[in-house]
Design goal:
This protein is of the alpha+beta class. Helix content is 21%, strand content 36%. The strands form three sheets. Strands 1-3-2-6-5-4 form a six-stranded mixed beta barrel. The chain has a four-stranded mixed sheet with strand order 10-7-9-12, with no helix packed on it. A three-stranded antiparallel sheet has the order 8-13-11.
């Protein structure tokens, strides 16, 4: 399957002046990688958002920098967004080598029906939602499935070692880490009153002690990448 493509242009505007680019629908970005100098680029915000909606986590995208002969294989490492509007402020593109393994997180997707949940009213508890792996960039799976159909008893669990992953993928999590577990409903009922009591005690302490400090108002992240 053909890889997704994104066209960007070299960027000369840096610092506070990048605000003018954003108002014009252009997003400042940087391309960097292991052993590579950082390259300042700019991309149409709409084009990037469209690509992000269609791409999966850690998917390799071919970025064509205007004026360069060959496209650069990248993964979108981070998109900084405004805390109030969620509008994109800056993008970090990590250039990869298709011949070198890289590390990253892959989402875990629960599938199937547990008899312990359906029949015995067990409560399915998820301990981790992302699996840390190492693989070649083009071998990164979009997700790893966690089949819970084999959990037919209360307190049954699936550990990292039980997950089925492609042979070309190395799992970095400890094998004994619990991924999902079916807890007894009786245990959950016993834990709830304890949690409620702790909450009431904390509230009483807050009333008798100093007034809690108000949360600071959210501010946009500084465009530190563009100062360079």
């Amino acid at each position: 399957m053909a890889r997704k493509e994104l066209t960007v242009e070299p960027r000369q505007v840096t610092g506070k002046k990048v605000a003018q680019l954003r108002r014009a629908g252009i997003l400042p970005a940087n391309i960097y990688g292991h052993g590579l100098d950082s390259v300042s680029v700019q991309v149409a915000t709409d084009d990037l958002e469209k690509t992000l909606r269609a791409a999966t986590a850690n998917e390799v995208i071919d970025v064509q920098v205007t004026g360069e002969s060959a496209a650069r294989p990248i993964v979108v490492h981070k998109v900084q967004r405004h805390p109030l509007t969620s509008g994109a402020l800056h993008a970090d593109f990590y250039q990869v080598s298709l011949r070198e393994r890289m590390r990253g997180g892959v989402p875990l997707i629960v599938t199937g029906v547990s008899d312990a949940v359906a029949t015995y009213n067990g409560v399915l508890m998820t301990s981790i939602e992302t699996l840390q792996i190492e693989a070649l960039p083009l071998d990164f799976p979009t997700h790893i499935e966690v089949d819970i159909s084999g959990l037919d008893e209360l307190e049954a669990a699936i550990h990292v070692r039980d997950l089925i992953v492609p042979g070309n993928v190395t799992v970095l999590n400890e094998p004994d880490v619990v991924v999902v577990k079916v807890a007894s409903p009786r245990v959950m009922e016993e834990e709830e009153p304890v949690a409620a009591a702790e909450g009431e005690a904390a509230a009483a302490t807050g009333e008798a002690g100093e007034a809690p400090q108000a949360e600071a108002e959210a501010e946009p992240e500084s465009d530190s990448k563009d100062e360079a």
